[in-house]
Write a structure and sequence with these properties.
mainly alpha; 3 helices; 76% helix; IQCC
């Protein structure tokens, strides 16, 4: 919703001929939306598979930092590196889930054909 308002305002308030910049902005926003949606789908599927394998998953939230704790904010390079690492891990998880599904399908076919 906020992205739609931002895009609408951006296109209405800008009267210059920077169409390429506008198109690139729109592409980035659309691509980021689809990537977030895909990661959320992979995360849900991963948690479902994990709960199927190990039973009910109980995730405890981290306690909030104490007031006298110094919080160091990461740099942009640190955040970009972490984003790349997470993207690779999520891709690996998605492949592992697909591999597990394929294995279980083959296993069920093999056991039903043996019966």
């Amino acid at each position: 919703m906020n992205n739609e308002i931002f895009i609408t305002q951006y296109f209405e308030n800008t009267q210059d001929d920077h169409r390429i910049e506008k198109i690139l902005l729109l592409q980035r926003l659309i691509r980021s939306f689809y990537v977030r949606r895909q990661f959320e789908h992979v995360r849900k599927e991963f948690l479902k598979t994990l709960s199927d394998i190990e039973g009910e998953l109980s995730i405890k939230p981290e306690p909030p930092p104490q007031q006298n704790t110094l919080v160091i904010r990461p740099t942009k390079d640190d955040l970009l590196k972490k984003r790349e690492e997470i993207a690779i891990e999520l891709l690996w998880i998605e492949q592992a889930i697909q591999s597990r599904k394929d294995y279980l399908r083959l296993k069920s076919r093999y056991t039903t054909s043996m019966s």
